[in-house]
Task: inverse folding
């Protein structure tokens, strides 16, 4: 049994542990022997091509689908904030953003709701109806809704779908702040690899099985990762692992540093 | 006012009040075809009533429940879309019911009455059953209401947030089956879902919350029943279709307003 740490302490503990999970859907193996764990204050990102089983793995982790083999353990009393990949709210349902937020966190007062919306850059939509929101606005509201639950674990399936480029960076910063300041665990699915690489603590590269997992820089050099995304894509995605070959002087000049080989080095 | 008209009005208003909130869910969850299927299968309930010599309402309620549970189970298979399955069951049940009634030559069943409803024929006992049953159905709906509203937004999200999704889904199907069984006497097999769908659709435009829409659908349904019965009385037209025509007229009027 996994246990939640008591409030206020920052002991790292495992919130979610997926252990050797396999799942077959209508005769096709979707997941085989997949393991991952999310700890407090850590961001784990699942990357992989279309059809790799990313969303299915998230659903298994959340208990929405049962695996054929293997175990999924979640801490007792775990409060989860979930942002599904795509949400289409039935247009025949009259639903204000206020009510939509209140459904996730019945105890939140109007000030809490407003703060959460401001945090995700959607402070102006509180009185609007959900079907009137744009795709990017709805995505931000979904995130605000998850934050309002004060989650131990935040689960995000493609969290920036429909959000503009500037907004994407903001949202990833917000997610990183949430993990590193509030100590929430984050499990995220993304194909925006180059942005995610910088914001994540651990990458799980999935293609029905775990190809490789670990620190983002290590994964981006892994042969299986390169095989999956191709060396060109992988190299263009790994630009965030840049190497400092010079330092800035107080007068604005630069000085060369001894060269260390980066992942993209094609020389020597 | 003649007493049979008073009975018809009392029964129709009771049904409209119950149909409002349930109709909203039929609209939100796109269950209109599900309602039709239940209604068509109810004709088999009439056959069952004749064959076993028991009360028609019980036969209809039993069969509607059986079909609702069957459909709930069949949603688990994924090869055929659910509206295809509904199409098979719906028309299969209607055709089987018509054939079976034709074979029972000694049965004195007013087929047109079942197909189009005969609200002017209901008695005070029926009215009491409609109101009493209606209160129970609405109370049951109120219990699962928060879960159902959360499910309409997204079932996975509702489950993650701690709602008992599978149970609420089954409860809704059973309750809608009972509402359809109750509505049959008023508007008949062919028009049963009209009383569920049309007032709710009319209410959508004027609503800002789900609860608001549910109450408004009841009020609009009641208005349609009153207008339809008045028209039926004045022009000597069949009561069930008259009520539906009134509901459609209210819907068209509501769409004219921007």
Result:
């Amino acid at each position: 049994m996994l246990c939640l740490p008591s409030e206020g302490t920052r002991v790292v503990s495992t919130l979610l542990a997926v252990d050797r999970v396999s799942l077959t859907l209508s005769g096709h193996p979707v997941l085989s022997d997949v393991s991952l764990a999310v700890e407090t204050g850590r961001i784990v990102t699942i990357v992989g091509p279309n059809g790799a089983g990313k969303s299915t793995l998230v659903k298994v982790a959340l208990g929405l689908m049962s695996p054929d083999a293997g175990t999924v353990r979640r801490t007792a009393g775990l409060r989860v904030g979930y942002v599904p990949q795509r949400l289409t709210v039935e247009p025949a349902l009259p639903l204000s953003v206020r009510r939509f937020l209140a459904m996730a966190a019945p105890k939140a007062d109007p000030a809490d709701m407003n703060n959460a919306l401001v945090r995700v850059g959607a402070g102006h939509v509180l009185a609007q109806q959900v079907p009137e929101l744009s795709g990017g606005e709805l995505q931000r509201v979904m995130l605000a809704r998850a934050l309002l639950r004060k989650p131990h674990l935040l689960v995000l399936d493609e969290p920036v779908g429909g959000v503009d480029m500037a907004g994407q960076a903001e949202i990833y910063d917000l997610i990183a702040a949430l993990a590193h300041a509030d100590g929430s665990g984050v499990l995220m699915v993304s194909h925006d690899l180059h942005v995610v690489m910088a914001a994540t603590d651990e990458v799980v590269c999935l293609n029905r099985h775990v190809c490789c997992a670990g620190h983002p820089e290590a994964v981006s050099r892994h042969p299986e990762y390169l095989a999956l995304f191709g060396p060109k894509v992988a190299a263009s995605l790994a630009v965030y692992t840049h190497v400092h070959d010079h330092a800035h002087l107080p007068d604005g000049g630069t000085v060369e540093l001894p060269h260390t080989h980066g992942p993209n080095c094609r020389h020597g | 006012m003649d007493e049979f008209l008073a009975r018809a009005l009392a029964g129709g208003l009771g049904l409209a009040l119950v149909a409002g909130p349930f109709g909203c869910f039929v609209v939100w969850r796109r269950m209109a075809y599900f309602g039709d299927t239940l209604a068509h299968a109810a004709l088999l309930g009439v056959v069952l009533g004749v064959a076993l010599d028991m009360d028609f309402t019980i036969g209809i309620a039993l069969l509607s429940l059986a079909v609702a549970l069957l459909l709930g189970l069949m949603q688990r298979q994924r090869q055929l879309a659910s509206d295809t399955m509904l199409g098979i069951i719906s028309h299969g049940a209607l055709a089987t019911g018509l054939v079976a009634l034709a074979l029972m030559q000694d049965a004195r069943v007013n087929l047109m009455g079942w197909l189009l409803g005969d609200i002017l024929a209901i008695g005070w006992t029926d009215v009491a059953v409609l109101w009493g049953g209606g209160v129970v159905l609405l109370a049951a709906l109120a219990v699962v209401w928060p879960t159902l509203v959360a499910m309409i937004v997204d079932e996975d999200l509702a489950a993650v947030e701690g709602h008992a999704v599978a149970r609420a889904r089954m409860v809704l199907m059973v309750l809608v089956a009972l509402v359809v069984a109750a509505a049959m006497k008023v508007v008949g097999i062919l028009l049963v879902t009209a009383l569920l769908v049309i007032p709710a659709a009319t209410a959508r435009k004027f609503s800002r919350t789900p609860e608001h829409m549910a109450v408004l659908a009841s009020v609009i349904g009641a208005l349609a029943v009153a207008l339809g019965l008045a028209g039926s009385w004045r022009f000597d037209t069949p009561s069930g279709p008259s009520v539906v025509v009134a509901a459609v007229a209210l819907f068209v009027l509501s769409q004219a307003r921007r």
Notes: Chain B has eleven helices and no strands.
